[in-house]
Write a structure and sequence with these properties.
4-stranded antiparallel sheet; globular; Enolase-like, domain 1; Uridine Diphospho-n-acetylenolpyruvylglucosamine Reductase, domain 2; single chain
Length: 330
């Protein structure tokens, strides 16, 4: 049986109190909300914080509220199951709702939070193992070792970002609010991620994610497709988020975002530019899918053969574009 290492558990009642605790405890403290990712990592000794600063009692971090210009503000500690059951949220942001519903299992969605999924640790076959297994291979570059077993000649960690909500939030142009002892800042979700399996977030250890702001998606057609071995529980080995706005029967703007093919969500910017001003007929969709697969560079660090996963990018981009060109159901 894998057991948690010893730790102190602090339960602040406000964001200010949480930030002060993080400042006082220093780099050996971690924030925890639902804990569905952090606690298993602690059991495997990936992270061993001496103190956990819990957000469960912090006021104002749960639920949704109206933002400026029709935007939706989502508290970072809002559980995934709360969003799953929110009919108004599902109607306004169907792709994000689909991504939320695809995460893990009902039990874990009842515990996990939207903020936790956005900050999800990167994953790799050589990293997501127990301590004894990792010790047998002399660990890996991401944790305790000095070799990336995915690419042994590289000094770069290639662990993948496997958040389901991240690609959709990037496609929707969402932003994230962070609070620290130095104040607060807001940045696009797209800029939160860094192409580095070890340091995958542009976030300081003492920063607390307090909310996500999703712009009004009225007029946009969106879709999220997820590839995984099983129909539930599994992390994505490919996620494709599509958001397209039309001017008549032509594409006014498009975003295609690939997940689980790199350490950060990947914008298929060349395909997005190609689609601008075009009708989404069969040939345009086919050509866009051919262009979109090029920036995807999956490696042998997760389920399925990596070359096949890359080929599936074409399939899922095509499906996403076919879905958004269909008339919106009333």
């Amino acid at each position: 049986m894998m057991r948690l290492p010893p730790f102190r558990y602090l339960a602040p009642a406000s964001v200010g109190e949480a930030v002060a605790m993080l400042e006082g405890e220093g780099p050996e403290a971690s924030v925890v909300a639902g804990g569905t990712d952090l606690y298993p990592n602690m059991k495997r000794r990936h992270q061993t914080p001496k103190t956990l600063v819990a957000l469960r009692r912090v006021k104002g971090l749960r639920g949704t509220a109206a933002g400026e210009g029709g935007a939706l503000r989502i508290g970072s500690a809002t559980t995934l199951v709360a969003l799953e059951r929110d009919r108004a949220f599902a109607a306004r942001f169907p792709a994000l709702h689909e991504a939320v519903c695809s995460i893990s299992t009902p039990l874990l969605r009842a515990m996990g939070t939207i903020g936790g999924n956005v900050l999800l640790d990167t994953r790799c076959n050589y990293y997501d193992q127990n301590y004894e297994w990792r010790r047998a291979i002399d660990f890996c570059l991401k944790c305790d070792g000095d070799t990336c077993w995915v690419a042994p000649g590289s000094d770069h960690c290639w662990a993948v970002q496997s958040s389901d909500t991240a690609p959709v939030l990037v496609a929707l142009g969402a932003s994230v609010r962070l609070v620290s002892p130095r104040g607060e800042r807001t940045l696009p979700v797209e800029r939160l991620y860094v192409e580095d399996g070890i340091r995958w977030l542009d976030k300081a250890p003492d920063e607390v994610v307090t909310e996500l702001v999703v712009p009004d998606a009225a007029g946009a057609r969106t879709h999220y497709g997820k590839l995984r071995r099983r129909g539930s529980f599994d992390f994505p080995v490919l996620g494709v988020a599509t958001a397209v706005r039309f001017d008549g029967d032509r594409v006014a703007s498009a975003r295609i975002v690939l997940g689980a093919v790199a350490s950060a969500p990947v914008r298929a910017t060349a395909a997005e530019a190609f689609l601008a001003g075009k009708r989404l007929d069969d040939e345009t969709v086919r050509q866009a899918a051919e262009i979109a697969w090029k920036p995807a560079k999956p490696l042998d660090n997760t389920d399925f053969e990596n070359a096949w996963r890359k080929k599936m990018v074409k399939v899922y981009v095509r499906r996403g574009l076919e879905a958004v060109r269909a008339p919106v159901r009333s």
